[in-house]
Amino acid sequence: MKALHFTTPGQPLAMEDAVRSAPGPADVRIRVLAAGICRSDLHYRSGFPAVDSGRILGHEVAGEIVDVGPECKTRGVGDRIVVHYTVGCGVCTFCGSGRERFCVTGEMVGKDRDGGYAEYVTVPERNTVVLPSAVSDRAAAVMGCSSSTSLHALRKGRLAKGETVAILGAGGLGMSAIQLAFLLGAERVFAVDLDETKLAIAASLGAEPVDPNADAADVIRKAGGVDVALELVGSAQLMRTCIDSLNPLGRAVAVGLTPDVLSVGPYTDLVDGERELIGCSDHTLADLHDLMAFAAAGEFSVDPLIGATVPLEAAAVNSVLDDLAAGTAPIRTVIVPE
User: Fold this and answer.
1) Span between the terminal Cα atoms of the chain, in Å
2) Are 250 and 227 in contact (CB under 8 A)?
3) How does pLDDT run along the chain (338 residues), one tens digit per residue?
4) Would you state the torsion angle of the CA atoms of residues 165, 43, 282, 162, taken in this order, to the nearest 10 degrees?
5) Where are the alpha helices (DSSP H) in the chain?
6) To the nearest 5 percent, what fractions of the chain are helix, strand and coil?
7) Which helix or strand (DSSP H or E) is residue 307 part of?
8) Domains of the chain from N-terminus onward
9) Which of 9, 12, 237, 249 has the maximal Cβ count within 10 Å?
């Protein structure tokens, strides 16, 4: 089968043939119908975090089940599903409590095990969520990472009804976070980004855009500050802005990937005001189920955020990753294999 592989850090993904193996006893094999191109894939291509040479990337995956292992009980051939990309052992304390992200033997689809930048992908049956009929394959792929991670970040920040939120980074995660913040009861949402086109879209979703030429933290503080701030890009500088935007008892949530080091004053930033700095890694299976329920009820949609689709071709996908690095990519781009 056709598949896009990581080669070496900083080099383009390469199209190479891959073996389409039979699923294990509790696995399902999926024909990929849509695979989102995520900023995390840009980080993997660059070499941070490290990925094994030859790995097939792609963790935002939706498709149709074409084969099931003999022990599968809840999924069948023809089911439309989205992949929950965190694969745990299923029996440890973390997996049993719905925190499979921290399973000692856990793997991530598209990073630690082969992913969906391919014609087919195989995952455990328990790592699939059946799609509501109202959710398109393309939307499901995006929701399988950026939207569900945004929901998890807001929950990690313990957003309560009537509170205010700052979203730093109005890309795929940010646009989902804006919608979800209001859905969870936020009174005001500020959007911070350098791209005025994205800020205009954020405004159409109800957010208050912050002038990209202004000191964002100063603007937000003068507007009353926020209770929850999400850093969704992967920038220590933007994480600093999150902290500086918080009211007393506020929570700053770090989501974006970066090797940069953040300087924090324990007293001035945290103790004084009882502010919190919280890490958020991916999401849970429960988050993904809840997100699909929101979409099925017509309360949430990412279809308008998908600005382009590309075929499963090395040049096309690498071009999108290059555009992500340059800040010129659409909010979301999805691979649609032929």
Assistant:
1) 12
2) yes
3) 999 999 999 999 999 999 987 899 999 999 999 999 999 999 999 999 999 999 999 999 999 999 999 999 999 999 999 999 999 999 999 999 999 999 999 999 999 999 999 999 999 999 999 999 999 999 999 999 999 999 999 999 999 999 999 999 999 999 999 999 999 999 999 999 999 999 999 999 999 999 999 999 999 999 999 999 999 999 999 999 999 999 999 999 999 999 999 999 999 999 999 999 999 999 999 999 999 999 999 999 999 999 999 999 999 999 999 999 998 999 999 999 98
4) 0
5) 39-46, 93-96, 137-142, 148-156, 172-183, 196-204, 216-222, 236-245, 285-296, 314-326
6) 35, 25, 40
7) strand 306-310
8) 2-146+283-335 (3.90.180.10), 158-279 (3.40.50.720)
9) 12
Could you tell me the two tokens for 55?
């790995």
Indicate the length of the chain as a whole number.
Answer: 338
Q: What is the token pair recorded at 298?
A: 């017509």
